[in-house]
Amino acid sequence: MIPDRPARARYRLPTAPSVWTGAMLSIVYIALVFAIVTAMRMRGPWYDEFYTLYVARPGIPLHQAVGLWLADNHPPLFYALTRATAWAGATIEERRILNLFLLVGACIQIAWWLTPPGLRRIGWVFAIALASAWPAIDRAAELRSNYLAAAAAAVALAALVGYERGQRAHPRIEWAMLTFALLIALNVHLAASIVVGGLVAATILRRLLAHEGQSAVRLTAAATLAAAPMLLHLALSFGRIEANTRDFWIKGGFGAARWAIEIEVERILTANLPVTILAVAGFLVLAYRSWQDRRLAAALDRAITLGVGLVIACVLMVAIHLWRPFIIDRYLVTLHPAIAMILALGASALLERIRPLLAVLLSAVMTIATLLAIQTNMIRTVSQASWYDTGRTIAAIRRGCPSTLVHVDWNGNRRAMAAPPSENRAVFPYAYRLVAARYGFALATDGDRSMARDCPTLFWTEHVAGEKVTEEGLAAQLRADGFPIGRARLIRIGDGHVLETWPTR
């Protein structure tokens, strides 16, 4: 008799995440880092970045610097990190490298939480969704705390989903890592603290309802310890924050708050449509399984919990906004990681229930969509208006007529300079000087009323987005200030303008 041959092992593609999906994720994050670095170098600065650079100058005594940081309403963590990385260079473009370090740190922590076997698929889709989001490049390519808020919230989301679920390490180490994640996320920005706080509150409540009392106590202890610096900051600074926002530049009312929240939700849902579609399909499958089993599926349970947390946070933010306006789109950056995690829970549930080959193919579709989103977001980021736009225009006019004089027209900036914090009065001249030095032209002194004879005299105003001005209106104000202006031509550029004038004859 001929012995039976052993059955040939049937070849199967590994389930996602696998070598294939791991390679896809590597490609995505190589592309993302390249796009971030490109945007950091090519994007011109806006006013708030000059503010950051000014108050985080290494030459200021530390005790004085802390006072400047606290005057900006929010916790001083980002300013401290910016000062600590002053070695990176003197320009805004060079100092933005801080956000690359934040990206690396966030990726390491997210991987720590979401690489245990039961959470890897969630982690993969979460990473893809985050890379597709608008803040992944736009907020990374600016010297402000918004990117730190987004990255810290992403880590906090990974910690809330993974805590006591992935059995990643010794319980004490896991609790310490959770506390650290919440410590950063709750102490960057007031709006970010509210969003992360709402997610934490919902998670604690859900664990109490699930009769996981000890887990809820440990989570509460971590959150309380992590929130202590923010609570102390609010206790010491509430009077100043309240005074600073009495006459605030942010538009008030329910409509403005609702619109800002709606825009951010729409941005993340449309950032990577394959992820969103797969997430919806996954939640439908989970809902059906939950109905069959007469109990919520774990992923659906987590998603509902996070959704409740977002509702809590949004209700609280709108209530505060009706009292003191503070909601604008860039302050809502932490909504992106929260919604990305909800999408990841749904999409990963679907990937778990389909054939490995189909899972890899769908992962490839999500990867391609992510790469396209990265390209789109990079182009949008570098094309945004900046102070360099007007600076380049002035430099081009002076190249054509070298004796052109350049004055700063302060009339458009007086209200912003008078608004708290008081450092605005110093930051505006500082910003104009930096841009003028970059493009190689000098600025007339404030008391100078001279005008060029054979070349135009330029009056430069930046950071006046949405202001309705006319040539004659600007010229009339300058004539009242003592300038003998004859004819004028208004050049609108981005969020600023240049008034090109010639003296009376």
Structure description:
There is one protein chain. Mean pLDDT is 91; it is low at 1-17. With 505 residues, this protein is mainly α. The radius of gyration is 27 Å and the shape is elongated. It has a four-stranded mixed β-sheet with strand order 1-2-4-3, with helices on both faces. α13 runs parallel beside α16 (335-352) and α15 (298-323) runs antiparallel to α16. It has 21 helices and four strands.
> For the largest beta sheet, what order do the strands appear in spatially?
1-2-4-3
Arithmetic mean pLDDT: 91
Shape: elongated
Radius of gyration: 27 Å
Helix content: 55-70%
CA(first)-CA(last) distance: 117 Å
Write the topology of this structure.
Elements lengths: L18 H24 L4 H9 L6 H9 L6 H8 L7 H4 L2 H17 L5 H13 L2 H4 L7 H17 L8 H15 L4 H20 L3 H32 L9 H18 L1 H21 L4 H26 L11 H18 L3 H27 L4 H14 L4 E4 L5 H5 L5 H15 L18 E5 L9 H10 L4 E9 L2 E8 L2
Parallel strand pairs: 1-2
Antiparallel strand pairs: 2-4, 3-4
Helix pairs in contact: 1-7, 1-17, 2-20, 6-7, 6-9, 7-16, 7-17, 9-10, 9-11, 9-16, 10-12, 11-12, 11-15, 13-15, 13-16, 14-16, 15-16
